[in-house]
Amino acid sequence: QYIPILFPFDYGLTIILPDHRGVGLSTPLACDDHGSQNLTVDCISYLTAKWSKEGLNQFSITAAAHDLSVQIRSYQSTISGRVSVYGVSYGTLWLDRFLQIYPNLVQSAIMDSVIHPQLFSMSRYDLWTSFVASRFLAYCQFQPECSRYFPIHEPP
Predict the structure, then answer these.
(1) pTM summary value
(2) What share of the chain is helix, strand, coil (3-state, %, to 5)?
């Protein structure tokens, strides 16, 4: 819904928004047959029984980097032109790994809100993101242009 606002058609861009393996519209990596994300000893047993240790290794950032290369090569086989990759937050870790493996596949790469791979923890990510989003939306209400796109009585 916001892509046309951020990147109007006349910019001549094609936007590809891949899902990392195990999330989004890809194969879900859940702790049971009902989609639970509650990490417990039982969850680890369930995942190991379902995927095996070798199978679980396919949900890595390296595997995701290979997936991205396949998507880019598929796109390049039908469309000529420059390819740039834009990574935000966790996407910067993904993009960093991609560039380590495929340093010459794209013409440019942009890392926005870079995350240090050794200091980053997903365990508190939702709390931090919620805090930042709440602050942004509160500030947004004082800006007419912003509040037009994020009305206070509608969920974002």
Answers:
(1) 0.63
(2) 50, 10, 40
Which residues are CB-contacts of 68 (< 8 A; sequence separation ≥ 6)? 18, 85, 94, 98
Residues pairing with 105 in the sheet: none
Q: pLDDT tens for residues 71-82? A: 999 988 988 777
CB atoms within 10 A of CB 40: 11
| Cα→Cα distances 9→71, 88, 130, Å | 21, 22, 31
Query: Which tokens hold the place of 35?
Result: 């989609």
CA distance readout (Å), 99 to 9, 28, 67, 109, 151:
28, 25, 13, 8, 39
Distance CA 154, CA 156 (A): 6
